[in-house]
Amino acid sequence: MSHPVAPATGSGRIRTPLPFPTAAKPAVADTQLRANLHRATRTIRAKRARVVDEVPDWEALRDAGSAIKADVQRRLPELLEQFEASATAAGATVHWARDAAEACRIVVALTRAAGADEVVKVKSMATQEIELNEALEAAGIAAYETDLAELIVQLGEDTPSHILVPAIHYNRAQIREIFQRRMSDAPADLSDEPAALAEAARVHLRRRFLSARVAVSGANFAVADTGTLVVVESEGNGRMCLTLPETLISVVGVEKLLPTFTDLEVFLQLLPRSSTGERMNPYTSMWTGVTPGDGPQDVHVVLVDNGRSAVLADPVGRPALSCIRCSACLNVCPVYERAGGHAYGSVYPGPIGAILSPQLTGVADNASLPYASTLCGACYDVCPVKINIPEILVHLRQQAPHPPAERATMRVLSWVMRSPRRWAVALRLARAGAGPLGAYRERRTGARTLRRLPWPASAWTRSRDLPLPAPQTFREWWGKQ
Amino acid sequence: MSARDEILARLRTALADSPPPVQVPRGYRRVDDRPDLIAALVDRLEDYRAVVHHGIGALPRLLGEVDRLAVPTDVPADWLAGYAGQLHRDAPPLSPAALDDLDAVLTGCAVAVADTGTIILDAGPAQGRRALTLVPDRHICVVRTDQVVGLLPEAFTRLDPRAPLTWISGPSATSDIELNRVEGVHGPRRLEVVLISPPGSSGA
Ligand code: SF4
């Protein structure tokens, strides 16, 4: 039997506008940013390790999670049809979107049909991917992010830099400054205490929650046999959005399916521990269509392809669709810790972004990302669904129309970052402003004209008085791994 | 071709290599063998900064601090024994603004999971609809000891997927500012758990 319709790549915020090494330069040179990132990733790594260690059957859970997702990928068309039937029977309306633009058109039309000119939003990677806020704004609909970190990023007119903690690149003083500048009802004497900042956000959003008529969410999981959607969160902003408005629109990538309701017993153990390093996140909401008299009475699900069929078509890269967006791989990645999330250009940063983004767009459109890795393997070790990210990176590098500059730079960078000793040497040389890293390349490549150090050292050598990060910190970190 | 048919056709084409069937290994624990589940639950709840009280006798004292209390319509009468404040039953349904005006809500739950310190509400008896336990700033939740299970897989055997489910592990919290945990952003800022024995049993 032949199928005439070919898998298609996606659009939206999944492309690097600049090659990765270029995009990473500002982050590498920004000591405040690097300090914020370092502190944050180190803290989450330690929390995760602690709560994973207390689970005696962690490896068995990973094996189950990985296999369930492989099974989903194999049966994706039939499971989607089953989900549609179950959700519809429970009173939801299911829509299908080929790409980002189509998904946005559907959400805009549903919001207009509900007679609303504003929506409250639960943090969702899928809606960021399709650039929904921009599409709503263009249609005259205001979109309010209600997750604290997303609110910070939205008020700061910035983009998220981490899957789980999108404002990871800001410290408390910077957050206070954004609130005072952009949040009209922020107290004049707002301090930079986290509790005071959280309280300001609570007051700011309360009225909006109580009056919102339309909410937009994503979903962490969509269950085929029951039609249930699941949202995992901490602050209660998710519960507010999923409970109080009359209309609820959930944008869900087709890969989010799980075969059965019971399969959640595996993923709700894997996700919180891998993600926030908690035994369980404060709130999880599950809903199945409409419950009369309780919660939204007009419930919609938008199932989105946007490149996922292209990912599915590659048997080697296919497991990238298993990702449950826990962000554990970001927090252990030496490249992410130095480059920050923005360097990846896509809403999916870090190791998973380095494979998923080029797969979603087609490798030609994101050719530098598969080189944004040292291939150290730390991401594979922590991944709760055992995605072999290094293997997929190598596979994608073979397909990429090799961008020579990135390739050479990333090769050297990766060689340097693989060894704490070489990293320390690179930093010393960077401080001296010249040296054997260049010489190393000279010997290897026969090029004799190389003057500048390759990235990331180049960013530091351009100007002598750029502060250098302490090599000690990296070694300390490395020693713990 | 509709978007639906086109996406399904794309996905079928993508699977032209016919991946082999997958056996899901389910070697993970399904039943907890911990000797004292209740102690484990209390430990986890307190670790997440919920406040735990023992025995139904704790209720009058707790409710004594509450001026305006929301309750689902089917809350057991003995939970409210001696309550002298303003009682707001959720019938007809209280508006979000009305709920926002109340001091606390008192409900039961469906299941509690000791391993993770999680309380699960399924809109069943004594729980009411979801908004009720969301808008008031303080949630007092009565957990019967026969509702406590050890592990997540045990909880799933007791849940109805068609019911709206709210899983609560400690009060609302954020860690978005330098990863400092701050309790109470939008959900109830205080979670108080009252552990009681099942009706007809002795002891608390
Ligand atoms: S690839 Fe694995 S570790 Fe990384 S975000 Fe996805 S599930 Fe988590």
UniProtKB/TrEMBL annotation, chain A:
Q: Which Pfam families match?
A: Fer4_8, LUD_dom, LutB_C
Which stretches make up the LUD domain? Answer: 80-304
| TM region positions | none
Give the source's domain of life in one word: Bacteria
UniProt xrefs under InterPro entries: 4Fe4S_Fe-S-bd, 4Fe4S_Fe_S_CS, FTHF_cligase-like_sf, Helical_ferredxn, LUD_dom, LutB/LldF, LutB_C, NagB/RpiA_transferase-like
Give positions of region: Disordered: 1-21
Which Gene3D superfamilies is this protein grouped with?
Answer: Alpha-helical ferredoxin, NagB/RpiA/CoA transferase-like
**Which ranges carry the Lactate utilization protein B C-terminal domain?**
398-480
4Fe-4S ferredoxin-type domain span: 321-387
Cite the entry's keywords alphabetically: 4Fe-4S, Electron transport, Iron, Iron-sulfur, Metal-binding, Repeat, Transport
Q: What is the protein's name according to its record?
A: L-lactate dehydrogenase complex protein LldF
Q: Which organism is it from?
A: Micromonospora ureilytica
Automatic annotation (TrEMBL), chain B:
Domain of life, per lineage: Bacteria
Q: Taking every annotated instance into account, which residue ranges of this chain make up the domain LUD?
A: 100-196
Lineage of producing organism: Bacteria, Bacillati, Actinomycetota, Actinomycetes, Micromonosporales
Question: A Pfam family name for this chain?
Answer: LUD_dom
Q: What is this protein called?
A: L-lactate dehydrogenase complex protein LldG
Tell me the PANTHER family matching this sequence. Answer: LACTATE UTILIZATION PROTEIN C (PTHR43682:SF1)
Report the InterPro entries cross-referenced here: FTHF_cligase-like_sf (IPR024185), LUD_dom (IPR003741), NagB/RpiA_transferase-like (IPR037171)
